[in-house]
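the two lines:
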Amino acid sequence: AQTVTQSQPEMSVQEAETVTLSCTYDTSESDYYLFWYKQPPSRQMILVIRQEAYKQQNATENRFSVNFQKAAKSFSLKISDSQLGDAAMYFCAYRSAVGNTDKLIFGTGTRLQVFP
Amino acid sequence: NAGVTQTPKFQVLKTGQSMTLQCAQDMNHNSMYWYRQDPGMGLRLIYYSASEGTTDKGEVPNGYNVSRLNKREFSLRLESAAPSQTSVYFCASSELRGRFTGELFFGEGSRLTVL
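prediction for all of em together
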């Protein structure tokens, strides 16, 4: 069975600085997808960024980028130029490429605080 | 366009009582999911429905039942609530586009407390 581990329960960053959130996963599959979801205080989860395992290029979405290390099974999220609105819980998630649904396996989350 | 709507948002139950969480999506998605979120444990899949008329167990299905009433609606029922079911419940939906997407659209969550 696949597992997702987020070893940092909490992180903090100053506004305009850069922060990296860590995620490792375990799988025997070669084809899969990885995601970072954001959960602000309002509780509604939203997708931040997605990475396809067969693509070597790291995904980027504006100020958000990932460092995908397939051999090491590592998938970290870098937030550049942090803003107060980035304060939230961040969840790393895994999806097998097999199957006809988007069943995701989530990590335990990292709470990010942003200080002015 | 409301997206995914869950009701109720808050509920307090006594042990042994039953209740149903309702979920509806207006995005014409085929797949729907119920997750529970507990402190330090992330989100865990309870049940999912790949398409109208089908339901399958997820990681933590014990104590729950689901009904995919139609393409829009997917309800979660607790037949005899237990304190261990105190949690925040999230409904989500998705639609496969191209190969796969993995983008789930979530409701705002329902906080359930069982005394």
